[in-house]
Amino acid sequence: MELNFSKRVRNLKPSAIREIFKYAEMPEYIPFSAGNPAAEAFPAEEIGRISAEILRDSPVAALQYSTTEGYRPLREYLKEYMREKYGVGGNGDSLLITSGAQQTVDLVTKALVDPGDIVLCEDPSFIGSLNSFRSFEAVLLGIPMDEDGVNTERLESVLRENKNIKYFYTIPNFQNPSGITMSAEKRKKVYELCSAAGVLILEDNPYGDLRFRGEDIPAIKTLDTAGAVMYVGSFSKVVSPGIRVGYAIGPEALIHKMVVCKQGEDVHTNIWAQMICHRFMTECDYEAHLERLRGIYKHKAEVLEEAMRQYLAPKGISWSKFDGGLFAWCKLPEGVDMSDYVQQALEHKVCVVPGSAFMPNENEVSDCFRVNFSTPTDGQLRRGIEILGSI
Ligand SMILES: Cc1ncc(COP(=O)(O)O)c(C=O)c1O
Questions:
Q1: I want to staple 246 with a disulfide (CB 3.0 to 4.6 A). Which of 20, 32, 83, 234 is the partner?
Q2: Tens-place pLDDT, residues 199-230
Q3: What domains can you pick out in the chain, each with its CATH number?
Q4: Does the beta carbon of 206 sit less than 6 angstroms from any atom of ligand 1?
């Protein structure tokens, strides 16, 4: 039977990352392409123990249907934790548990975007979110990035020149894919510009806890007195992406609408997984766990940087500064064709993601590629970068 796909999804392409994943899963390939946490980062023993205890002590609660808003003890704990530790969330905000940050981004878009509405985003930006915006037929306008975050002059002029902008999507910490962190000054400026223009900020922060150098910079949400920021959190990079638990903290009215939208998607996030997150945060030493993760990624980043200095810098390949997260963003020398380069890397069994995958404008040409440093072993990091330098 010939299927007649909806106009909304007809032109959606499979993510370039997912395609490259096929190779990255083969043991003979060096996997610089995924955004996966390191294998040694998972608190598997604790999760196994907690999970068994939950099934032994509260099987019905764990296996029964539950409320869309999320498991109450986790919601209450997270509200308190995020407010006390980070100053995120205040009067007028609600918290919704979601099935990962990806679902929060999708629900916000579902709740706010009509076909043809503009969504502003950083250029480059996370492909999963870009595809979600596209699936609701948003018009994506990319704002270029500087070394200290989005270019605020450009943001200002785009906000001035366009009327039907629904929100500005930003990943302020160790951005995926560029690794760039937005400075405190720029966060302030972004908040002032967007709130003055009546444009919501969608602040996606899955990597904030993975800073291994320098000082934390407060979230844009901490500046929010006008109910103008939806904050997106996730357990994916700090506990497990397979567990699929994230959260949204933002204006009550928008959260209410997202709850209705979520009912039509998955009714509620896996309750057993939410119970595990709650008990892991409250019963295990969560701060020590985060510190251990930062140690793992600091070490891997140092191995990567040393190899990049040795093998990439002499060939004219440069990279953006990164102080946390899981990615390095590399720029090829002038005149090198990026698609050809990435293809050759694949032929040499090294998987990197072409920069074009992260462009809001799908026809834009990129001279960059993304390197993930959390998945490969130290040996793979050195060998893979040596190969990338030799191409
Ligand atoms: C910036 C960004 N947002 C959202 C996600 C999706 O995260 P989750 O697994 O919580 O859905 C990712 C995953 O790589 C990401 O990099």
A1: 234
A2: 999 999 999 999 999 999 999 999 999 999 99
A3: 11-43+288-390 (3.90.1150.10), 45-283 (3.40.640.10)
A4: yes
